[in-house]
Fold:
Amino acid sequence: EIDIKNSKFPFSVCWTTLPLISWICPLIGHTGIADSAGRVHDFAGPFFVSIDNMAFGRPLKTWVLDPEKIMNPQWAEEENLTAAWDECIEVADEEYRGYMHNLFCNNCHSHVARCLNLMEYCGKRNWTMVSVFFHLLFKAHFLSWIHMVQAYVGTVVTIGVALLLAFVVF
Structure:
């Protein structure tokens, strides 16, 4: 069960804004994947996976997943899919602790995709940062209307300042 107050989002992909970048393009943000206890694991920088403390703030929206959709034969036969879920995330975490972070090629979305590939979530082994992006875009939900406002306030202010400067200068 999601617990917003304590920032626990079990079996979810979580999204939050990236300062400056999300203000210019509000669809772009930072992602992590939560274990069965609700702790978010995010590839936060070179050789570093943060656990239970997302690099750019608390999640604003989540895409809730179902551990029953783990299809990897190595894990799907387990009596305890919760343990399988957590193990897949730990394997991806360990792998990404050895990677350099790159904003365009090897980033937080790639880490989430790796977790989903290890699980063969929904029978897929070809999750990518792009597919994670589109699933978040169309399947994730804001935690509340206040979280939605928090996601877009930077964009509104940026547009407002740009318009103000455009009218003052011209």
